[in-house]
Structure prediction request, 369 residues.
Amino acid sequence: MRFVVTGGGTGGHIYPALAIARGLQDKYPGAEILYVGKTGGLEAGLAARAGLPFQSIPLAGLQRRLAVRNVTAVWQAARGVVRARRILAGFGPDAVVGTGGYVCGPVVLAAALTGIPTLIHEQNALPGVTNRLLSRFVSRVAVTFADAVRYFPRRDRVVLTGLPVRPEILAFSREEARRTLGLPVTGKLVLCFGGSQGARTINGAMAGVLPRFAGRPGVCFIHVTGPAQYDSFMAALSRSGLRAPQSGNISIIPYLYEMPAALAAADLVICRAGAATIAELTVAGLPSVLVPYPHATGNHQEFNARALERQGAAIVIRDAELSGSVLATEVEQLLADERRLQAMAGASKKMGRPGALADITGLIDQLLS
Ligand SMILES: CC(=O)N[C@H]1[C@@H](OP(=O)(O)OP(=O)(O)OC[C@H]2O[C@@H](n3ccc(=O)[nH]c3=O)[C@H](O)[C@@H]2O)O[C@H](CO)[C@@H](O)[C@@H]1O
Prediction:
């Protein structure tokens, strides 16, 4: 079997493509997989690290407003389709899978026009432009959120699968996870992080929240600042009397490599609303306070967050309304209300799709027969 996977621009598009590639390799031992990405994109390095051969297409991104650069971009996209057709003719894939980002456009379109079975995966509750355009041509659209379905005109082709999460996320029991992290087995753990870069406003609010909980029995905090903001966060915190990164029940770190263990150990999470983060929260069945990143394209993080809020799985605080006292009040109330926390955890778990990868590779399998 031979497959092409394509998707690029940000990790948010690339990691699901790599997860699907792994799923296809497991399902079809010996399958050959080619990653097609943008020339000079982040995907080239990540595909190489995943051991996948890579071919590239030169492309410029479209500007959202009317711009001269768009003429070049459209011209490059047309040439991209020609280049993609050549790559596909040379490789001869049985199916092509796209996970969003501009590069997906020419590759998936060229495949669809040549009659190769195609599937695209949409990570967010508000679908991206490329996937919306492509949905008219592809064989199947796999979505992460039920809320995304209405944006695709050909609903009969849309299937709710969820977003494939890294398998380690489900590997820990709560006790094992707490031992791994050196935390007490009893008591509540509040985990707080921004996206992979950290979040300035969440850090600002947490500098007000943490001193209120310092030394309080029965609750501990892990706060992840993001690598670039660690020093300024520690400086801000020391002004309120907390100096050490590890003081009693509070632990402050620049980046959390043990995310799977931390999610298994946590009782409440405070974070942004990126699609991968939300897939992980719901697979783990965790209640959350979500602060969507307000500058994400089309404000899609707010759509992601509201999808959880509507099901009772999360509380949403808008970035502009976040402050130390707003967040501290919310956390106090949640920690004091075990029944509410349990109800939110149950709602979150219901939205989780641990079988997302199997469902996606199953859909691809159907397209082959
Ligand atoms: C700023 C922005 O536009 N981000 C977008 C980007 O998300 P991006 O990939 O940046 O962010 P996500 O929230 O989707 O994923 C973050 C990932 O980093 C991990 N992590 C984070 C912090 C840490 O200390 N350790 C750690 O392991 C999380 O567990 C998660 O797996 O693409 C997603 C999918 O299109 C979108 O939904 C997001 O809105």
